[in-house]
Specification:
Elements (H helix, E strand, L loop, with lengths): L9 H6 E3 L5 E3 L13 H7 L3 E2 L2 H7 L5
Antiparallel strand pairs: 1-2, 2-3
C-alpha cells in the first residue's frame, strides 16, 4: 500500500519554520502593534524566535514540510 503524503498547510508554513535537527521555531506574539507602550527590554526579548513545545510540535509536525 502506498504511503499517504500530507499536504503542506500554507498558513502554518508562513508562521513556523523547521530547523535542521527537526525542531519547530516560531516568532513571539505581541511584537507587531503598539511598540511605543512596551519597554526596550520587552521588545528586545520578543525579537528572537522561540521553540515550540513538544505537544505543539506533535500537532504541527505534518503541516510544515
Amino acid at each position: 500500500m502506498k504511503k499517504i503524503k500530507h499536504k503542506t498547510k500554507k498558513s502554518a508554513c508562513k508562521r513556523f519554520k523547521k530547523t535542521a535537527s527537526g525542531k519547530i521555531m516560531m516568532k513571539h506574539s505581541h511584537r507587531s502593534h503598539q511598540a511605543h507602550s512596551k519597554t526596550t527590554k520587552q521588545k528586545r526579548h520578543l525579537k528572537h524566535d522561540i521553540q515550540l513545545s513538544s505537544a505543539m510540535s506533535k500537532r504541527h509536525r505534518y503541516t510544515i514540510s
